[in-house]
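Please supply some protein, with fold tokens.
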Amino acid sequence: MSSLKILELSGLRALVTGGGSGIGRQLALGFAEAGADLILIGRRQPPLEETARIASSKFGRESTVISADITVETDIQKIKSGAGRVDILCNNAGAAPMHAWQTVSLEDWRKVFEINVDAMFRLIQIFAPKMMENGFGRIINISSVYGSMGGNPALYPGIEWDVASYFASKHAVHGITNYLAPRLAPKGVCINTLSPGGFAGSDMNKDSGMGSDEMLDAFYSVVPMRRLGGSDDIAAAGVFLASPGAKYTTGQNLKVDGGWSVW
């Protein structure tokens, strides 16, 4: 197999949750550029349609758009019936509300886990069995560099930025990936975690105020590459994990963070 073919996604279909904006759109368009058709899932139809338009106009790829809330079981069934064949499942949708750990309510805590952990696992339950039957599948669970770190408050000067539920839920993503990897591998299905660091245009960084000069200076002081990640950085990592070339890579956590976590 040539070096190009092992990273090519032609003939494959990739389902991306939260595919209408931020990292979800960047990953979806990366899959499209590599040749995959898309199934785009999100609560808001217009951003999904825009991702589909770009995938068609720039890369000639077809998209199925399904407006759905992945925390609602009736919508999960809507996705199941409308998605068709899924070769690549990219669990990207997530939430990072700002709640101090001392006062976050159990209700709010559970809401974060519903989208970041429960919905992800539910979609794997829906689509992994058919992948196993087909002898091929790629599952990419989007975590965060904070899924394996505690977080340094000094990086966020001057603001109250406390997302304990987010940190805990992203740690849980690794647990699910690690548990399922040896159970799916014999059937040709690889499951991995992809952990972004600080990325330009990500919804979480916008909400946290990452764009301020003070915050960026603090961030750059601990990131060896001295910059935020770009769309091609995350897309390239996603395409690798989705590709035939990743057939011997499973149960891993690929950090795309400019060296942030190396310290």
